[in-house]
Structure formats: C-alpha cells, structure tokens
Write a structure and sequence with these properties.
single chain, about 475 residues, about 40% helix, five-stranded mixed β-sheet, 19 helices, GIY-YIG endonuclease, alpha+beta, Nucleotidyltransferase, domain 5, four-stranded antiparallel β-sheet
Amino acid sequence: MTATFAAAATLQGRALAVVEVKTTGVHPARDAIWELAIIQVDAEGCVAERLHWLFEPCVALPPQLLSLSGLHPLELSGQPRIDSEARAIADAIRGRVLMGHNLRFSLAFLRRVLPDWKTLRPPQLCTLRLARATLPQLASAGFDALCAHFGITRFFRDRAVPDAEAVLTLAQHLLQEVAPTTLGQQLRSAARPPLLAAERFAQLPERPGVYYFLGDGGAQLYVGKSRNLRRRVMSHFQNDHRDRRSLQMVQQIRDVQLAITAGELGALLFESAEIKRLQPLYNRRLRKQRELLTWALTGEPGELHIELLQHHALRPGLRHVGLFRSRHQARQWLLEQARERRLCLRVLGLEEGEGACFAYQLGHCAGACCGEEPRSAHDRRLLAGAERLQTQAWPWNGPVALVERDEQHGLTQWHVLDQWRHLGTVDQLDHAQPLLAARRGGFNLDTYHILLGHLRRHPNMEIVPL
C-alpha cells in the first residue's frame, strides 16, 4: 500500500473496511447474501486482515448467477446462516470507514442482517461515486469498466474475495488523484445516490413543492410532493434499502428537478396532475383514472331503484352514492352494505330468483324478498348506508379561487376550482379567466379528496369567488 493511499485513508482518523457482498438477486427483502468478504486496512494503510464467509441463503440461486460466479450449490451446503455471524460482521466494520463499489447496494442487504446497524453508523466511501467525481471524462464508472481502465485483473470474477481485492486496488488509484476536500465531501454525503451530483443536493430548498426523479435520457422515474422538499428528497436516499423498487429507483436517479409551490395544497394538486400526465415508472398511486362509476338511486323508500352509471352520465339533481374506479369495487361496496345492514341481494339486483333468498334462510337477510319486512324499511337502511358515501355538494354558487400564500418567500398562488375540478393554478388572479374559459378536464376522484380534505383541515382558508 502506498503512502499516498495511507494518507488519504486516514484523512478522517479511521481505518478502512472494504466490503463486497454477493447476493441471490436484487430484492433486499426477498433475496439473501451468499458470500461476503471484508478486507480490513489499518490506520497506516496496510492490510490488517482478510475475512471471508460463505452462507446458506435458503433461496435458490439463479442459473445465470451460478454460471457467472462458477459457484457450485454444494459449496453452500452446510454453511451457516448469515444471522449467526452478524456479530462477527459488525465487529469487522466497527470503527472503520466502510468502502465498496456501489456501496448502497451492499448496505441495502447488510442493514437487514445487522441488528445493531443504527449503533454502528459507519462513515462510507463508495468507489463508484468517487470515480465519477475524480474521472468525469470516463464514459462509464461501472466496476468492470474501471478495472479495465486501470488494468486491474481479477483471478475470478463475480466472487467476493477477488472483487474486494479489486475494489481496494481501485481505491488506491482513485485516492491518489482525489483532493482531501473532495474526499471529505464524499464521506459526508453518504446518503446521496451514486449517480446524482453533489451540487443537486446542495440546491434543495426547504420549501413546499413537487420533485421529479429523472433517469437516463430524462426518463421520468418518480414524482412526489412535500412541504419541505429538501427533507423529503433526502428521506428517499436514507430509506432505499427497505424494498426492491425503491432500491432500484435510487440506483437509476441521474437528476432531481423541482417545482416550487406556495403551500401544501398546491403541491398536492400539482403532484396529482403531473403523475397522471407523465406516468412515472415508480409511482404506484394516482395513476390515470378510468371513467368513474356511481350508484344512482331513484324513487322513494318502498320503490327505490338502484343502478350503476358512469359519473358523467348523471342527470342534474339525480341522487347517487359513491365514486368507484371499477364495477368490481362498486359491487363490493354494495355487498358490504348488504352484509352489514341485512339487505337482500335480490332486491338490490345482485342475485336472480324468486321468493325467499338463501341469505334469508341463513339469517343474513331481513326478508324484503319474501314479505317478512316492508320494502320501505329495507330501502331506508340502504339510504342510511349511502349517506356515509355521499359526494359532498359544491359549497359555492360558481367557480372560486383558493388562495395560498408563502409569506416567507413572497409567493402567492390562486388555485382555480369549479365543481371540485382543479382548472389550474396561477400566480396572478388576472390569469384565472383563461382557465375558466377553457374549463379543461373532468371530475377527478383524487382531486376531490385532496380538496375536501384540505378544506376540512383549513376551514378558514381565503377564498375568492370568480
């Protein structure tokens, strides 16, 4: 080990622990570590000890992995479970700067098997990020590409011990070229994803708004919102080990873009609209909705008729209940009402036949189907259940603008609304008229719930009739 490497390695007053894990897949919650190597480097930059474990992963190893690594399944037969070695692994890295290539991937698995991880909290140095900061001219900072660039040979590929040795050699090359201040920044920014520039983190404001995670070629990975953009964005990179999707997403992030809003309501409305418009890869909720359905109720108790209609087909003044995204969801709600209130599936139109229904024989129907109870009593119970799911009436005579102000930063926004539809947001009230004239977009269930919830939490919000 060269003196240059030793000086850089002890910059933080710590020795190193170079870690390399081999896993059965990329899902930290489902896959497992089957091989682990740790190389301990002392404060003088000399290798103190090489540690190596094989583990019984308790899951099948993919054929491609066996082919790449040259591993035979019998090598793992009779090996210990990794949790039995958790204390020895923790002791091997305790008090040291943890180093690895694409270190976040390794830590996503190690955090799950080391119960005292929060007490360890080792400083981290990722050679992938270090290479990007030191050699920005390289087309790729992948492990194989960097080994080829520096002429680093491995006697085996895709095995923990030779790969850990290669990481150590790679670090020696990189640390000879990095400035001490750059190294210090790398150590302090351990939560930053490997492909995201440090400058983007420094620019994150503590303000409300919407954030966009972008991948290669500007691909939309994720859209989110927060009252504090900096805190929320940082939280993604602190928790990316919890599931496979978030881990994969963080590995792909190349850039973060922001849209500032005056407050929480603007962030909620804008996030909902942007997810539907962009359809980001990793957003599970707020997808583009299909036509909403509702149960239309006509007549009075005793002759009440219920029919499933598309929301846009409702006639003005027609009584209806619920907003459902599918026929299955609408039917399930009606079935739940029948179970809770002893309603008859035949009367509701969910079951065919004549006379007493089977549910009546089981005591689950009060008997509206066979004259054991008045039909009016049955219908009143149905209406009582429907009241809880009634869509709130629009409380104003026409369109309005909800005013949201960020006094600290001097930003005011007007959210233009009509009949629970968000027509748009403007920074000047004079710009609301074009939105009213266009009236683009129909009723949206997510927008309805966002507005209703916000108004309930903030009943004194400033409102301007338009």
